[in-house]
Amino acid sequence: MQAITTVKRIKGILLMTLSLCLGAAAAPAALAETAAPITEQEAHGIAVDAYVYFYFAARSFTATR
Q1: d(CA 65, CA 56)
Q2: How far apart are CA 10 and CA 13, in angstroms?
Q3: How many angstroms from the chain centroid is the CA of residue 22?
Q4: Which tens digit of pLDDT belongs to each residue from 49-64?
Q5: Where are the domains of the chain?
Q6: Model pTM score
Q7: Residues 6 or more apart in contact with residue 38 via CB below 8 angstroms
Q8: Strand positions, DSSP E, the chain
Q9: Residues 6+ away with beta carbon under 8 Å from 46
Q10: How far apart are CA 5 and CA 12, in angstroms?
Q11: Can you say whether the dihedral through the CA atoms of 51, 57, 58, 62 is positive or negative?
């Protein structure tokens, strides 16, 4: 009875390992298809938003400590 349980456990581990390997192999292709290039103006807008929302929040947090 213990041998059957061990075989089932090994099969489960092998199936999980195979699934993880296949998922890791397919992930870069899926991510590459969804990424769209951004323009210089969009990049600048992102940088300004990051500066305004994160830098000033960090400064006010430090000032109130």
Answers
A1: 14
A2: 5
A3: 17
A4: 888 888 776 666 665 6
A5: 1-34, 38-65
A6: 0.39
A7: 46
A8: none
A9: 38
A10: 11
A11: positive
Please choose, from the candidates 9, 29, 7, 27, the residue with its C-alpha nearest in 3D space to the C-alpha of residue 19: 27
Amino acid at 36: A
The position carrying tokens 């397919």 is 26
| Residue whose pair of structure tokens reads 């210089």 in the numeric block | 40
Q: Say which residue the tokens 């929302």 belong to.
A: 53
Separation CA 46–CA 38 (nearest Å):
10
Residue type, 59: R
Where do we find the tokens 């400064």? 59
Residue type, 46: I
By residue count, the chain amounts to: 65
Q: Can you read off the two tokens belonging to residue 7?
A: 């075989």
Rounded Cα gap, residues 28 and 11, in angstroms: 27
pLDDT in the model for residue 61: 63
